[in-house]
Design goal:
With about 525 residues, the chain is α+β, with helices and mostly antiparallel strands. The protein folds into two domains: about 270 residues, no CATH class; about 150 residues, Heat Shock Protein 90 (2-Layer Sandwich), CATH 3.30.565.10. About 45% of the residues lie in helices and about 20% in strands. It has nine helices and 18 strands. The strands form four sheets. Strands 1, 2, 3, 4, 5 and 6 form a six-stranded antiparallel sheet that branches. It has a five-stranded mixed sheet with strand order 12-14-15-17-16. The longest helix is centred in the N-terminal third of the chain and has 78 residues. It is rod-shaped, with a radius of gyration of 52 Å.
Length: about 525
Amino acid sequence: MSPHTRSRSRLIVVLLVATLGMTGLLGYEAHQAVRSHRASAEGVLRDYAGFAAWELSRQGQQHLLDRMNHGMDAVRTAYRRGDLALARGTVGCSSRCTNGLDVRDAFHVRLSDRLASWSRTPAPEVASLVERIIDDNLRNPDDFTCPTFVITTIDDEPLAIVLQPTLDRASRASEVIGVVTTATFVAETFAKILRHDALLPPSLVQPGTNPNTRLTVRVESPADQTLFASSSAWSAYAAQAPLARAYGSLKVAVAITPEAASTLVIGGLPRDRLPLIIGLMALTTGLVIVSLVQLRREAEIGRMRSNFVSGVSHELRTPLAQIRMFTETLLLGRVRSETEGRRSLEIVAREAQRLSQLVENVLLFSRGERQRPEIHREATRLASLVGEVVESFAPLAASRHALIRTELDPTVSARVDEGALRQVLLNLLDNAVKYGPAGQVVRVGLCHDEGCARLTVEDEGPGVDPRDASRIWRPFHRLARPGTATGGAGIGLAIVKQLVELHDGHARVEAGDSGARFIVEFPGAWRETGAPAAVA
């Protein structure tokens, strides 16, 4: 590879790596931007949830206070009549009202003597809890002026104990009236709020729709017992707002459904682009890898082509030098005898044959790279054709001190292109003579095997390593033999494989008795009777 080509390849590699790095950086920045955008949008949704929770807690405290006031007014009236038992049942409203309390027990406590008057004897845990609530409130008498309640559980049932003080002239509690009621009034209160009161700002509510359809509400006791849930669904965009101690220290939580993001946030929640970014990164990485592989292949092909040109030039120069030298010898009359003159002509003919074979290989390979070569099959007696090729190649084999022996079945016929078969056999013979030792015997065989004509060429060389059995058929691939230097263009076996496959045949190499055995098979063969004898 020339320095200019190497410099250009390095520049391309640097640009490809820089492109990959830039793509990775842009992908990371895009991912971070999406994450930041999503975090901002989720923060907005949580802020809306926080606003809704605050509004719900505010309205919840107001509605709970109203409900307790209505209920306790009825209880106080019953007490003044002298019969707390009248307070049992739903009190504080008419039969069509929903602001009442489902009273289980009612009681009155004079703070001077702490004696309670019950509509009926309460459970011991209720009585002790009432006393504890009164004691807790009396520690801050200035705050004990309005109704208050606590949530407790008795026999696995959530109950509420509601107390309302009676104030003296100093605005201090002098007596307490209270009831034990079910905790359903808490759920009813918050359900009513969700039906009629908007928890989100008016600008976020579509006219004519339920203002709270995008919200999910939960109300829990301090012991995490669920008192009300508008839906079993929940989301991560939630906020919590606790109620004051006078309202049972209830925990109110509001969540915004993910489906509401498109209306509450401009553009909605950004979709996760990480799979797309990873896909683009994988695609870019794949393209860069393919480009680098192609660059490497281009460099390898360039090197092989350079070696090919060098090898072809050397192969052409040798026979041309021989032809020129002996032709000049004959023209100048420098031969000393007729035998020497004939020997010179034989050398010229042999080198011309070598030159013709090399040029034919180059032309075949060149045409095969541009387009698929065409062959014309004809029914042919293969033994006679193989014998002619071997006979024509014998002088070249003799020049390299090699002997060719044949074992041909004269009955084998097949539809082949004679020129293609001749080129296949010449290349196999040239390869066998080239890689075998001096004085070797090259064996050529032809037989019929299960509908195929099998042609074999076996040498006595070092053989072919099984790891190279598939690579030797590639263009420009030549086996490196330690301590030996072989010429050639590296396309002979590639042409053999191409021409055999054009006949729908197969070419392979295996270990022979002492060297490598090359086998080519042509399908559709048959036997004929009365065939001439094989060429030996």
